[in-house]
Amino acid sequence: MSKRDLKKYLAELNKEQLEEQIIELYEKFAPVKVFYDFAFNPKEDKLLQESKSKISHEYFPIKKPTSKWRPRAKMRRSVAQKIIKHFISLGVDAFVIADLMLYNIEIAQAYSSKNLIKQDLFYKSIFNSFEQAVNFIISNGILNEFKARIIAIQQETIQQKWKNKYDFDTILDKIGL
């Protein structure tokens, strides 16, 4: 069904029929429920804090008091990417999304400052996240608000002597920072 056909179909329904269909969608499909729950009660700050916590646990897992062993860091970029994609689909404010994107990179850098990482894929992955974050920030016209954090991330790559630190420099050169 095309969007045009859908509009035509919806125009033929009365208010009660529309309400019934929306309630049925809400009950049947989890993404619809999530959308409406967020639309009517956004609580972006709480959502942001929960998401930051999930991301930080990827790098700094918490040892359970009953366990003898400390869990290993999983360092999965996909966890943050999934959360960011979810935020975008919900229509969360661009400032919140940009904050989360940069936080993901900053927490990875905090981890790498204390731990030796041998996998080149880690550095490439964080660079991809950086490039996506900068592009998102520019496309939403909020570069001035995040300029200091972007520069700090780039400076941290130099301080930690990342192999791909020049790639980060290139991004800053392209945007004139």
Helix and strand composition category: mainly alpha
Q: Calculate the mean pLDDT score and round it.
A: 88
Ranges where pLDDT stays below 50 over 5 or more residues in a row are none
Q: List the secondary-structure elements in sequence, H or E.
A: HHHHHHHHH
Main β sheet profile = none
- Please estimate the helix content: over 70%
**End-to-end gap:** 47 Å
Rg for CA atoms: 21 Å
Number of separate helices: 9
Range of strand content: under 5%
User: How many strand segments?
Assistant: 0
Q: What general form does the structure show?
A: globular
In short:
By secondary structure, the chain is mostly helical. It is 76% helix and 0% strand. It has helices at residues 3-12, 15-28, 30-40, 44-59, 77-90, 94-114, 120-139, 143-159, 165-175.
Q: Mind sketching the topology for me?
A:
Layout: H1 3-12, H2 15-28, H3 30-40, H4 44-59, H5 77-90, H6 94-114, H7 120-139, H8 143-159, H9 165-175
Describe the structure.
This protein is mostly helical and 177 residues long. It is 76% helix and 0% strand. It contains nine helices and no strands. It has helices at residues 3-12, 15-28, 30-40, 44-59, 77-90, 94-114, 120-139, 143-159, 165-175. Helix 4 packs parallel to helix 6, helix 5 packs antiparallel against helix 6 and helix 8 (143-159) runs antiparallel to helix 9. It is globular and about 65 Å long. 16% of the residues are buried. The model has no long low-confidence stretch (mean pLDDT 88).
Task: Give the key terms.
mainly alpha; 177 residues
